[in-house]
């Protein structure tokens, strides 16, 4: 194992993708803050951040270091002389990852596997919107007539259609294109690249003894905009969809929420490379979170539109929307909570209320909290008959029925099988072309 890579005695190893901006950067900051305040002094955080190039990685590490110093300065006020001790509890490491390149995902995974002893949390945050503009008339009309809902579940974003990743297999020396199936860009950046990463890193997430009372966690970052109608199994990569972003997020919800069902267990176990708990290993858990709505660079906008967007979000919060944390730091609440919460807390909440989607919410004053979020066809926890107050629900949300629940589970099975088929297909293709990265 390389010398330069920190491996503290009692380390908590967390990896965050897309860490150089928006929510990814905020997740890094919030993880530092909450880790230092909630974990014992004997524990250290090893924060592994991924970006698309070294320049962004360097800038991100510098930003996080500055943030760490600010946090330690503030915490020192209660215990003078404590700053140095606190600062020594956080270690940084940067890696390069482009989720639209399967080889890049494999390269990173191999490096991580060779250089750290285990992983505690992998936060699958990076993503693209794939939007190219706004339907302005619809935007103005819906915002003026139904402000809160219009900026929570917008219907006015215009998506690019037919976007594909660059070829995964380089052209031959004679310039001939390799024969490879299409790979949807939004699908790959938001979902499939992360899906592969989760598979390759699962053995490291599994390195937790049963006696530790904590499992490795694969934490997906989804969205409120994960609609049933957006996902079409005949175009699961949403290449021809007018809502590729929403489709990728719906797939995320389905895959994560059905990952603990007995009907998906054989395929999920294959994905997680899992046979049974042993003295030294346990099965990792897959969770799904979302940040609510925050002002970030995910929507390409001019400065003026950006200001208007922030103003619209603040107003929505003032009108009573719980889903407008607005700032990325508040939006990071649910991801960081799921990463750091005690396993017994998560398990007992799931035992009482079922497996759910954890969202970042705030009150009117911006006090943040974690809130379970309704998912079409799953409800709040996959339980038929669960009644909740209307707040935070989509205006057209329907109560979960037995039939809806069955359809969701069936969809989950089909999606898992299809994703494993696609993984096998691409791994074989890359191997045959001689470009795959060998893992072991
Ligand atoms: N903002 C919101 O209100 C909101 C709401 C719901 C869900 N989310 C989700 O939150 C996550 C983060 O979004 P954000 O709002 O923070 O957007 P953002 O500021 O645009 O950040 C996206 C991050 O993903 C990285 N990324 C994009 N394509 C990538 C690729 N092919 N490979 C590796 N990294 C890639 C970006 O890197 P570059 O800087 O190199 O492009 C950037 O670091 C996304 O999954 C998004 O769907 C956001």
UniProtKB/TrEMBL annotation:
GO terms for cellular component: endoplasmic reticulum membrane; lipid droplet; mitochondrial outer membrane
Q: What GO biological process terms does the UniProt entry carry, in alphabetical order? A: ergosterol biosynthetic process
GO terms of molecular function? 3-beta-hydroxysteroid 3-dehydrogenase (NADP+) activity
Lineage, top-rank taxon, reads Eukaryota
Q: Where is this region: Disordered?
A: 381-400
UniProtKB keywords: Lipid biosynthesis, Lipid metabolism, NADP, Oxidoreductase, Steroid biosynthesis
Q: Where is the signal peptide?
A: none
Extent of Basic residues compositional bias: 387-396
- Please report which protein family the annotation says this sequence is part of: Belongs to the short-chain dehydrogenases/reductases (SDR) family. ERG27 subfamily.
Q: What is this protein called?
A: 3-keto-steroid reductase
């Amino acid at each position: 194992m390389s010398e330069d890579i920190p491996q503290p005695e009692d380390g908590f190893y967390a990896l965050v993708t897309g860490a150089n901006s928006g929510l990814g950067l905020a997740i890094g900051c919030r993880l530092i803050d909450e880790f230092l305040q909630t974990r014992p002094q004997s524990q250290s955080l090893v924060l592994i951040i991924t970006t698309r190039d070294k320049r962004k990685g360097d800038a991100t590490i510098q930003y996080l270091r500055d943030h760490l110093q600010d946090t330690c300065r503030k915490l020192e006020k209660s215990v003078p002389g404590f700053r140095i001790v606190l600062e020594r509890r956080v270690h940084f490491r940067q890696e390069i990852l482009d989720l639209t390149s399967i080889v890049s995902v494999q390269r990173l995974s191999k490096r991580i596997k060779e250089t750290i002893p285990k992983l505690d949390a992998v936060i699958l945050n990076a993503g693209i919107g794939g939007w190219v503009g706004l339907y302005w008339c619809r935007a103005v009309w819906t915002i003026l007539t139904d402000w809160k809902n219009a900026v929570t579940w917008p219907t006015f974003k215009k998506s690019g259609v037919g976007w594909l990743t660059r070829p995964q297999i380089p052209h031959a020396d004679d310039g001939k294109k390799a024969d490879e199936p299409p790979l949807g860009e939004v699908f790959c950046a938001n979902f499939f690249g992360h899906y592969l990463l989760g598979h390759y890193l699962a053995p490291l997430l599994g390195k937790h003894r049963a006696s530790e009372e904590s499992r490795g966690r694969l934490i997906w970052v989804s969205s409120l905009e994960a609609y049933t109608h957006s996902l079409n199994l005949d175009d699961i990569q949403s290449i021809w969809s007018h809502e590729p972003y929403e489709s990728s997020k719906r797939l995320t919800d389905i895959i994560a929420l059905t990952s603990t069902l007995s009907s998906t267990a054989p395929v999920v176990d294959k994905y997680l490379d899992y046979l049974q708990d042993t003295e030294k290993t346990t099965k990792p858990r897959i969770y799904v979170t979302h940040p609510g709505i925050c002002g970030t660079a995910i929507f390409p906008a001019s400065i003026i539109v950006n200001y208007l967007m922030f103003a619209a979000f603040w107003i929505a919060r003032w009108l009573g929307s719980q889903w407008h944390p607005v700032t990325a730091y508040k939006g990071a609440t649910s991801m960081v909570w799921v990463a750091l919460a005690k396993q017994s807390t998560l398990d007992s909440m799931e035992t009482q209320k079922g497996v759910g989607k954890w969202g970042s919410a705030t009150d009117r004053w911006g006090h943040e909290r974690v809130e379970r979020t309704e998912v079409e066809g799953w409800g709040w926890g996959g339980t038929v008959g669960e009644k909740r107050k209307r707040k935070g629900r989509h205006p057209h949300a329907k109560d979960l029925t037995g039939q809806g629940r069955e359809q969701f589970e069936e969809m989950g099975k089909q999606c898992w099988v299809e994703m494993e088929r696609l993984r096998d297909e691409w791994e074989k293709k890359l191997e045959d072309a001689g470009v795959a990265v060998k893992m072991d």
